[in-house]
Amino acid sequence: MSDTRISELVRMWIDGWVVSRGGSDPIDEPWGWTIDIGQSRHVARHVLPEPSEADVRKIVAATSAPGTWLKLFAEDATVLPWVGPGWHLDRPGFLMTCHLVPERPAVPDGYTLTRWTRGGVTRVLVRTHAGHFAARGQIARAGAHVVVDQVETAAGQRRKGLGGLVMRTLQNTAYEAGARTGLLVGTPDGRALYSSLGWTVHAPMASLWYEPSDAAR
Known about the structure:
The protein is α+β, with helices and mostly antiparallel strands. Helices cover 25% and strands 39% of the residues. The two termini are 36 Å apart.
């Protein structure tokens, strides 16, 4: 994937992400893509794989709807001066890829793992033997690749290898289904886990949403 342009990787990520989240088909724009999400605090998002100041300022000037998001594949410090009042910076992200290989993760004592697939999305759930939520994650297939999404470990269950268990289970599921490439956008907290599992960072992603009042999301 080292020779693949960032714009191509971003489009591959989008193709799986919309399946995972139930978003609209991406609308081609001169600068990237627009995706309708249809949630009150996430109405739509504009994704710019190679953002320029002129394009971002044009989008910002035309935005009046709260719940509009920008996903800009650049550093936070670079793009923040391009937006004005009402735009809020979310946690940074990192576009990452992985060459998928067979995995045989073992479920630790004291936990159970459930896996199911519906609508092109495979979900993995880890619970304690008492039934309490411990960790989760999901993948969506898009052609020859998969996108990993919504990986989460409960606060009291971290540093027990459960995030790795979820990821390796998802990766193996994807491999067995014929996929050979995985993509994700990880948080700063997740980056270390993904890197330890063989994932490579290709670009940072700044994430901003529009809320014209000072109220939090």
